[in-house]
Amino acid sequence: MTATPVPRPALSPTRRSTVTRYRDRAATDRVALDDVLDAGLICHIGVLLHGTPVVLPTIYGRVDDTLYLHGSTGAGNMRAALTGEISVAVTVVDAIVYARAAMHFSMNYRSAVIHGRPVEVTDPEERLRALRAIVEHSAPGAWDTVRAPDKKELAATLVLALDLTEASVKTRTGDPSDDPADLNSDAWAGLLPVSYAFGTPIPAPDLARPAAVPDHVVARIRTGEFAETEGAISPRR
Fold first, then answer.
1. Are 160 and 119 in contact (CB under 8 A)?
2. What's the CA dihedral at 197, 199, 201, 204 to 10 degrees?
3. DSSP alpha helix (H) spans, the chain
């Protein structure tokens, strides 16, 4: 018996989450947001720190309609994030677009921007669920193979939850958008695909005993949207 898909909430069309330029590239489908977040590896958080805008890269994890972030309890930027609104951006670049005119150079990309006021996660079960999601986002299968955080580590870690309702998604796909007058130019135009690449795993020099690369690391390379190519492991686009 096939399970009925759970309906995803639509993105919130607020003033700050509404795409105003190239509106045809915007998506309001919540699945589009999930796809970008699941494909990205890092996010950039915009906060006000001592009255000054600061943008910080960090890893993240998603569970359903919540984005989880974490950092040291002593980190000023994490504490600043709890004092007001923040913005979180994730971008995946798929190709550089070469055009015949300089003003039409571009990129094919998938991007998401989330707005909101994060809350501190204090429930012990949710904290572990959030930290697991963060680890599993970049290293699927690793959480169950390593030591879980101990009390001291948990006490030193601040976990934030950000609701994903207010967000915008924007993508560009396709060929260069040159002006008709430039189509006879001798300049080369086209797409240069961009991809992540996984190399050969390098074991830590202080492993307790030699061991083969574990299955979850091999699976990270070979499954999902990633496929083996000549000389590297690159994502299938």
1. yes
2. -100
3. 30-39, 76-81, 124-138, 151-155, 215-222
Closest Cα partner for 157 from 67, 83, 71?
71
Find all residues with CB under 8 Å of 97, minimum gap 6, and list them: 104, 105, 106, 107, 108, 172, 175, 176, 191
Name which of 140-149, 191-200, 217-226 the model is least confident about. 217-226
Contact (CB, 8 A) for 158 and 186: no
Residues 166-217 have pLDDT tens digits of: 898 998 999 999 999 999 999 999 999 998 878 889 999 898 888 889 999 9
What is the phi-psi region of residue 109: left when phi exceeds 0, alpha when psi lies from -120 to 50, beta otherwise? beta
**pTM for the structure as a whole:** 0.85
